[in-house]
Recover the amino acids of this structure.
């Protein structure tokens, strides 16, 4: 089972990404990514990571093959990935190809095309 902990709900994923997730992990479940206060210090991040670790550990009995797709604010992701790996829970990121389009010679628009899941 793939637990999607990101700002991108799986219902908005491309067909390629959702199909790869189902093929590779069997099932996808969303957990909304937390709003990270930019004023928060390192202890704030550590506490939030421990809170999410407990939520995810509570799911492991029901989903022993649990893998967490985690993408978002970098310091939180780093802290939580370290905790999850210490608890033998696999973590992945999604990789993309970035296509940049310059519109009206002034506005840059980026499109991201899913490529694969990569393990941390």
């Amino acid at each position: 089972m793939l637990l999607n902990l990101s700002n991108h709900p799986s219902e908005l994923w491309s067909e390629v990404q959702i199909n790869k997730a189902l093929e590779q992990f069997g099932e996808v479940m969303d957990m909304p990514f937390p709003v990270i206060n930019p004023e928060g210090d390192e202890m704030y991040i550590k506490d939030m990571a421990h809170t999410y670790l407990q939520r995810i550990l509570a799911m492991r009995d029901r989903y022993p093959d649990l893998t967490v797709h985690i993408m978002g604010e970098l310091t939180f992701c780093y802290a939580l990935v370290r905790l999850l790996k210490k608890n033998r829970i696999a973590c992945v990121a999604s990789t993309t190809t970035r296509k940049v389009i310059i519109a009206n010679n002034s506005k840059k628009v980026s499109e991201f095309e899913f490529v694969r899941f990569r393990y941390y």
User: Anything to note?
Assistant: Strands lie at 2-6, 28-32, 67-70, 90-103, 107-119. Helices lie at 15-25, 42-60, 74-86.
